[in-house]
Amino acid sequence: MGPRPRDEGCGIGAGMITDSGRQERTTRRVALYARVSTLNHGQDPEVQLRELREFCLRRRFEIAVEYVDKGISGSRAS
Length: 78
Description:
Elements: E1 15-17, E2 23-25, E3 29-35, H1 45-58, E4 62-69
């Protein structure tokens, strides 16, 4: 086997054609998870989600689902 011809593509994108001629899915599906562990401190999981969505958009990841946990921290509130 020698090097692959350049016109076969690099495999980046929503799909690619393999040597067998079958199209394969190459997009990565991800789940987002945002967590805020304190209450009444002005923290908002939407801020985390916005940054994660932008990250996924830049890398062409498909967001399958988003989880938000508005939990209470295990530490004591002062």
